[in-house]
Amino acid sequence: MSEPDQETEAGGPLPPLQMTLRWYAGDEELPVDLLLPADPVGPQAVLPALQKLVNEVVDASVKALEATGRSVSCKAGCGACCRQIVPISDFEAHAIADVIARMPEARRAHVLQRFADAERQLAAIKPLDDIIADINGPDRYDFAVAYFGYGVACPFLEDESCSIYQDRPLICREYLVHTPVERCSTVGQGGIGVVPISRASKALFRMSTITDEAPSETRVPLSLVPYWVARHPADFKNTNGSGWMVRFVDAMMQSDSEEEAAWQRAKKKAADQASSPAGSMVAPG
Length: 285
Ligand code: SF4
Fold this sequence. Notes:
- With about 280 residues, the chain is mainly alpha-helical.
- It has one domain (about 5-270).
- The protein has ten helices and six strands, in the order αββαβααααββααβαα.
- The protein has helices at about 5-10, 45-65, 90-100, 105-125, 130-135, 140-150, 170-175, 200-205, 225-230, 240-270; strands spanning about 15-25, 30-35, 85-90, 155-160, 160, 220.
- The strands form three sheets. The protein has a two-stranded antiparallel sheet. The protein has a two-stranded antiparallel ribbon with strand order 3-6. A two-stranded antiparallel ribbon has the order 4-5.
- Bound molecules: iron/sulfur cluster.
């Protein structure tokens, strides 16, 4: 970043805002120092701060898990969870599209071909718009289990590793298991223990609409990012970084209660059907 004072005098961007967010990992208070844009920006511009927040919350949550004698069982070369449906927010979808757009041409062509392959596989099973509707609908937990059965890997998964590790969505950062990895291929049958981490990724589903009279949530399947972005140009209202963080905290508080309600609905339905969707990556969501 350029020297802030010089840029301000020259009429350039304002120097970044510093904010300390007091978060919790379990019962432990976790102050997280963030740098945020002072100028009006779209929500994509605060993603680096949100990624830092989630990284620190995840680290603290893993330490809390290890203090109980358990440990994370995720390991390099295991991408079972990358075959689940990965719902991301509208502005994360645009940020991921930007990641692809910045790739060198040959790499970009390769990645877009992988997305085209995933679209073709999914479209052979179900219309793509129906998939997007299902992951945004009230029965999204059941659909997540069905989607895992489709066996379509995230287009960024290569050699069972994430090829955009530094840029991966928040939900991918938050998803860690502490049960044997063999169980990760049995989504929908229970038995997958997910490390308890406050799910900031869920708040992002409504962060861009939190101030509207009737805030809505948007979940974009990661495997359909180019398809979705082509049909939904970015038209977010700009506000400064602290404004976005206020929206994020508001959305976090709302999404907690809504997640719980949706999860309870899914559990009741699963109990009625004598099969549990516990362990799905989209739970709660
Ligand atoms: S972005 Fe990376 S971590 Fe997330 S589902 Fe895709 S391959 Fe897996």
